[in-house]
């Protein structure tokens, strides 16, 4: 009898848990700032009745440290390729139930089975992009072809840069012809004096909206995300986007579900929703990065497809890989040079 009673209690708990899950009409999205259009969030809520809480971050490292510190409320995050690798290594991502994401068929095969998710278990690509140089050609008359041309004393206090330690170290490594994924003390000792000189030239650090300082004339050139470069070019053709001759980072930002996410089914619904061509186009309209959705690309205007920042022709591009503990060395180095020590 006792056994039956406890079985009954367990059943009730399970039932109410199931009920609570079915009732949960929330999606906690932790994503980059200036990357998810309000129109997409509103459209999703309208279609599904699920309310989206959109919390933002400005770097992979900021998001990663929150997850590793034990944040458990997020249903979706939006890491770049190397941070996906770190999360997978520590079992922090949940496998996607692809039967819930039939629109995955719209993804360009080029963006599937990539090094960071070789079996397509965890991620749906959001946007790809590059880190490149924007030049206000009304103000800068010399030809700028690479990082070396940007970081010259004559441009002191005229430069905006991404506030991102790994990216900054990469710019120096690229000019030194080094592998951007091999980071150790010796390599960083070679980076330090160069970066120490460069940071003295930078006027504004901004990873959220580096376009702003260029638009309002605060600076004349800078190193920014390609979507920002594309928006500047759309605004005024005097803003030229240059892919550095030395080579640069190509990022693949994806949606992924943290292990133990409270509303996994809602996260999968959102993944499927943003993969609809007409929804994906809305993302490109507001944030013109490289859209990995083949069907959405067909809906873009000619101007959108011809924006050189969004869809670059040829360039030397490299993905990042997880560098493990060496990430701490980068952080220390950049903090040191920025504080002048
Ligand atoms: C969006 C930032 C792009 C992310 N605001 C770079 N990985």
Could you walk me through the main structural features you see in this protein, from its secondary elements to its overall organization?
By secondary structure, the protein is α/β, with parallel strands linked by helices. The protein contains 14 helices and ten strands. The protein has helices at 2-23, 38-48, 60-68, 81-89, 147-150, 165-175, 185-199, 211-215, 226-235, 264-274, 277-286, 294-297, 302-305, 326-339; strands spanning 26-32, 51-57, 76-77, 123-136, 159-161, 202-205, 221-225, 239-242, 248-256, 317-318. The strands form two sheets. Strands 4, 5, 6, 7, 8, 9 and 10 form a seven-stranded mixed β-sheet that branches. It is globular. Residues 1-23 have low confidence and may be disordered. The structure holds pentane-1,5-diamine.
Q: What is the chain-wise order of helices and strands?
A: HEHEHEHEHEHHEHEHEEHHHHEH
The radius of gyration is 22 Å
Global geometry:
globular
The unreliable regions are 1-23
Q: Name the ligand types.
A: pentane-1,5-diamine
How large is the count of helical segments? Answer: 14
Average of pLDDT: 94
Category from helices, strands and their pairing: alpha/beta
| Proportion of helical residues | 40-55%
Largest sheet: 7 strands, mixed
Task: State the end-to-end distance.
Answer: 73 Å
Strand content: 15-25%
Quantity of strands, as a count: 10
